[in-house]
Amino acid sequence: MKKLLLTGASGFLGYNTCLLGSSSWAVWGIARSDFVKPAGVNLIRADLTHSARLRRVFSEVQPDAVIHTAAASRLDWCRDNPEESFRINVQASVLIAELCGEASIPCVFTSSDMVFDGFNAPYGEEDPVCPASVYGEQKVLAEEGMKRVYPRVVICRMPLMFGDPGPVSFNFFQDMIDAFKTGRELKLFTDEFRTPVSAETAAGGLFLALEKGRGILHLGGRERISRHDFGLLTAEVMGLSKARIIPCLRKDIPMAALRPPDLSLDSSRAFALGYRPLTLREQLLKLIPSPHASGLELPH
Ligand SMILES: NC(=O)c1ccc[n+]([C@@H]2O[C@H](COP(=O)([O-])OP(=O)(O)OC[C@H]3O[C@@H](n4cnc5c(N)ncnc54)[C@H](OP(=O)(O)O)[C@@H]3O)[C@@H](O)[C@H]2O)c1
Fold it and tell me: Around 221, how many Cα atoms within 13 Å sit in the side-chain half-sphere?
């Protein structure tokens, strides 16, 4: 089997990518934290901001391909820690592209819909970037730096993702399910839109990008939906109560007014390559019997 080096193996997307990839690749997953790795995955503990360590991992594993999902992915943390987040989001990403270039192997990078400001959706790959956050700016710098050192890198701009966060990560979806189950009130925006996909769907898109991708590829879903409608749909599909979902507007919450209003991606280029996200309802239904739903504790 060919060897895949996967960064961010303990993270939400990385963990789901391990699960999907380990039947057809010998996966070498990199993480900083100690976590229960999926069966069949080789785990390497490394901090990617230590460049000598990163170089050593490449020379020891000698991968045939790389998927780079590791990142400081929380917007507020990047805003408050711009230098530290720059080291993982930009510097480490550029070094990974450089090492892939030296070995002349495929490299897929997970960028974000946050490279846009949300005022001109839907966004295609050719649209000019215009980030509205430190995190978004760092993703743009990583895209540019990686392309400069290794033009063969495939940049996948990921949409909002939902699903099993894995053993150590945490995401908005888990919090939403928890609110539905405990009857906690949840305010959801009726005027913030995305094109979400499940992490499993997104992971499938990353393998497609590894095989057929070139340049930039948007991996959004087929449906544009508000946070509020997504909450209603999730509760309905999961058989949980919608009673405490409160519709609200971004302007009602001061910080939220600064968030991009519509980051919907036009992913027709990926669809043409064979990326086929199911409907949101179907993707949510697939999560219910998941044997890996320990983090979510969904109803069976
Ligand atoms: N989640 C979304 O909805 C979404 C949307 C758009 C784009 N994205 C992008 O998709 C990718 C995956 O996101 P995610 O939600 O899966 O993120 P996540 O759950 O926060 O996971 C981040 C991963 O990065 C690793 N990491 C962070 N700093 C590291 C370092 N210095 N050295 C080694 N590993 C480090 C973490 O390892 P440890 O936990 O072991 O420290 C973890 O495995 C990211 O590039 C993110 O920007 C995500």
Answer: 24
Rounded to an integer, what distance in angstroms lies between the CA atom of residue 8 and that of residue 149? 22
User: How far is Cα 46 from Cα 42, in angstroms, rounded to an integer?
Assistant: 13
Q: Which atom of ligand 1 is nearest to the CA of 13?
A: 16
158 lines ligand 1 (CB under 6 A): yes
Distance separating alpha carbons of residues 200 and 161, to the nearest angstrom:
9
172-193+225-262+278-295: CATH superfamily? UDP-galactose 4-epimerase, domain 1 (3.90.25.10)
- 288-293: average pLDDT: 54
Query: Atom 24, ligand 1: which residue's CA is nearest?
Result: 70
pTM above 0.90, yes or no: yes
How far is the centre of ligand 1, averaged over its atoms, from the C-alpha of 138 (Å)?
14
Binding site membership of 13 for ligand 1 (Cβ less than 6 Å)? yes
State in Å: Cα 151 to ligand 1 middle: 23
Sign of CA dihedral 286, 244, 297, 171: positive
Q: Please name the residues in contact with 204: beta carbons below 8 A apart, sequence gap of 6 or more.
A: 20, 275
Alpha-carbon span 162 to 198, nearest angstrom: 5
Residue pLDDT, tens place only, 148-160: 999 999 999 999 9
